[in-house]
Amino acid sequence: MIVNRPPVDRQRFEALITEVYQPLQRYLCRRIDSASADEVLGDVLLVMWRRVDDIPAEAALAWCYGVARGCLANKRRGTDRHLKLIRRLGNEREPATPSADPVMLEALSRLPEGDREVLRLWAWEYLAPREIAVVLGITPNAASIRLHRAMKKLKTEFLRRNESGPAGHSMEEQDKEEVQ
Amino acid sequence: MISDDELRARLSAMDPLPSSVPVDPYTSLKAQSILERVMTTDIHDKTPSDNEGRSKLAIVTAAAAAVIALGIVALGVTSGGPTTSLKAKTTLALKIQGNGSAGTSRSTAGSGLSASVYGTVASCAVFNVSLLREMPIAFAGTVTAVSDSTIPTPSDMTVTLNVDHWYKGGIANVVTLTALITHALTPTTWTGVEDGIRFVQGKRYLLTATNGTVNGCGFSGEVTPELEKVFAEAFPR
User: Fold this and answer.
1) φ, ψ for residue A30 (rounded to 5)?
2) Chain A residues with CB-CB distance to B51 below 8 A
3) Phi then psi for B153, rounded to 5 degrees?
4) In angstroms, rounded to a whole number, what is the distance separating the alpha carbons of residues B232 and B237?
5) I need a labelling partner for A80 at 20 to 30 A (CA). Which of A146, B106, B153, B189 fits?
6) If you measure CA to CA, which chain B residue comes closest to A108?
7) For residue B55, which residues of chain A lie inside 8 Å, CB to CB?
8) Residue A127: is it exposed, middle or buried by C-beta count within 10 angstroms (0-12/13-18/19+)?
9) Which residues does residue B69 pair with via DSSP β-bridges, in sequence order?
10) What is the pLDDT of residues A87-121, one digit of tens each?
11) Partner residue facing B127 (CB), from A43, A148, A154
């Protein structure tokens, strides 16, 4: 029995599912273990079901990624199991195969988590700044600048490590020092 | 230095779940089981996993941005200063598509907009200082007036700014921005929002324009230390 949803909403929900189901799975599996990803996916779909009227047609997938991001955060707050899974990159899983780009991997690992996530959304989910803005709940302006700065930091870190090997403070440490 | 495209390709190569690795289709038994459970849930039964706390502002803003085009139609002195060469010789409006397709432009004076920056607004060019530096017009100003949003005439949808600093391309004391409202947004709902920029009286903004149209995508916005820093970097005094 379908509860509280007129047929038109059900149709819209089902149409959205065909569009976002697999990308959402990828998004989650890139950031958490498979069992937890399935669990969080159910949470995301539930939010979509309940808020189908709120989903913007022009940015449906990005909106769903934003919901997934929130559900992931809730999941992480609710359990510390994920901590055992955190790898050098932060919250994402290890690459399926050993990285053939260890210098870039190391450079990325030196960036603050916020920068890494923006770069992941850009390179893995292949989102444009306007879509990243929807995911993060910030303005397109802010997303565009945040991406630009993350790219710049990564290039700097990569160049530094590429030229002189492992060295010095991470960007995260530098950011903290700047704040102080 | 590594290019943006190369950077993206190298990061993409580190994707732990690349597209070559299959995931369950929505028709799979597992998916159908999840969907069955979801679609039989009472929509009023809140769960801790819901994302209600997430601001709708960005989404509303994005939707609004998709249907408003803003053009600088008068760049001139209105407070007794010298006449500027930036008076509106062209009026250009860029219609912003909300569905991901490329934008279309309309010009009453036959002038085109730099496609490299804003021609395909839906895909918003990635911000970088080099592109910012190429903007022919860049200034800082404080909003002194936002027109009455109930006036149903697109030409009356205006934002007036007192300019306190020209980074590039002008000397005017006052700049007036005019919004073109498209069919998808009624004038009564206009809030002075363009590409995520909400113009509010009394607030200060850093704006760039190309061929008479304000640029979004990080190239304009309300003043923040971050935006001021990149403007200073692009337009050293």
Assistant:
1) -75, -15
2) 47, 66-67, 70-71
3) -115, 120
4) 8
5) A146
6) B11
7) 137
8) buried
9) B180
10) 444 554 544 455 678 899 999 999 999 999 999 99
11) A148
Q: What is the dihedral of CA A175, A179, B4, B9, to 10 degrees?
A: 40
Residue with tokens 């990564």: A154
List the single residue in B43, B218, B230 with the smallest CB-CB distance to A4: B43
CB contact under 8 A, A2 and B59: no
pLDDT tens for residues B64-90? 332 233 433 333 333 333 333 333 322
ipTM score over 0.95, yes or no: no
Phi, psi of B122 (to 5 degrees): -60, -25
User: Which residues in chain A touch residue B199, judged by CB atoms under 8 angstroms apart?
Assistant: none
Which has the higher per-residue pLDDT, B46 or A34? A34
Alpha-carbon span A120 to B71, nearest angstrom: 34
The rounded average pLDDT for each run of 10 residues, N- to C-terminus, in chain B (237 residues) is: 91 88 86 86 56 32 31 34 32 27 27 26 63 88 75 57 87 74 38 57 88 75 88 90
Count the neighbouring beta carbons within 10 Å of the beta carbon of residue B136: 14
Three-state SS sequence of A71-140: HHHHHHHHCCHHHHHCECCECCCCCCCCCCCHHHHHHHHCCCHHHHHHHHHHHCCCCCHHHHHHHHCCCH
What is d(CA B43, CA B100) in angstroms, rounded to the nearest whole number?
Answer: 30
For residue B128, give the H/E element and its range: none
Q: CA B43 → CA A48, A159, B224, distances in Å?
A: 10, 51, 40
Structure tokens at B159: 């934002």
